[in-house]
Design goal:
mainly alpha; 0% strand; globular; 279 residues; 81% helix
């Protein structure tokens, strides 16, 4: 249970670190770069050098390919999530990000023939209904950028799907090595973007990059520990529901964010759908 609490706290901290970085006027690309630099360093430190995780030539290339695909999605998702936090607020962005679980759930049906139970099917229907219901063309919600929210959902879902592919193809013993390689590739991608943008690298960007990167790595380690110690029907519903509840509540109290009635109802529907999808 301690690992699960770490994952919940880390995800909630990550969202608000990104939110505060936006309010502080930092450069988005620079913060994301330092986020992955600090995350990779923390993973390397906690993993103890990856002893006993040697790979054969036939294994390393698929692992690198999967890590590169994940790195591209993660960097894109992080940059878009920053913009969505600025435009849409922390609560609704986090809710849509957690809803990304729809992607691996649906793809697994067609690719791995993993057909959902009746409960999961209800969760899929409820989640789809919530997304459609949340879209409001009236003036009171006209400031919401649904393109960004949709991208956060889609990218987050494909990141989860790649994690599922990793679990199928590789042994869990190389999870730390895979995570480090992914974070390292993310840092390289962001370094290229920063150079192309000629982005400033200020002390403020370094500080907020660390505040984002440390919980980012903490999420991975918390979920690994929680999944090893607790059944999935406890881990994922509690994790998703708690993060949504904490972020939405803190968003109202700390950032004075106000959800419309439609957004409040759709958020509750999505929270319920996440529980059904993860049972």
């Amino acid at each position: 249970m301690g690992s699960l609490l770490i994952a919940i706290a880390a995800n909630s901290t990550l969202v608000f670190s990104m939110k505060y970085a936006e309010k502080a006027g930092t450069h988005r690309a620079s913060v994301v770069l330092y986020n992955y630099v600090f995350g990779a360093c923390l993973i390397l430190l906690l993993s103890g050098g990856f002893t006993g995780q040697e790979l054969s030539g036939k294994t390393i290339w698929p692992l690198l390919g999967l890590a590169l695909a994940s790195a591209c999605l993660m960097t894109a998702c992080m940059l878009i999530q920053q913009r969505s936090l600025h435009s849409n607020g922390a609560g609704i962005t986090t809710t849509y990000n957690r809803l990304g679980i729809l992607i691996p759930t649906i793809l697994s049906v067609f690719i791995f023939r993993e057909y959902p139970t009746a409960v999961k099917a209800c969760g899929i229907v409820l989640a789809a209904a919530a997304v459609f219901y949340s879209y409001d063309r009236h003036m009171d919600s006209g400031k919401k950028n649904y393109i960004l929210l949709s991208l956060v959902l889609i990218l987050g879902g494909f990141i989860d799907f790649i994690s599922k592919i990793f679990g199928i193809l590789f042994l869990p013993e190389i999870k730390n090595l895979y995570t480090f390689i992914t974070f390292f590739l993310c840092a390289l991608i962001m370094a290229v973007i920063v150079l192309l943008q000629k982005a400033p690298l200020s002390r403020k960007d370094i500080i907020y990059g660390a505040l984002v990167g440390i919980p980012n790595a903490g999420i991975t380690y918390g979920m690994i520990g929680a999944a090893a110690a607790l059944p999935s029907y406890i881990v994922f519903p509690v994790y998703s529901g708690a993060v949504i509840l904490i972020v939405n509540t803190a968003g109202v109290l700390l950032f004075k964010e106000r959800l419309t009635r439609r957004e409040t109802i759709s958020t509750a529907m999505i929270a319920g759908a996440l529980i059904l999808l993860n049972i």
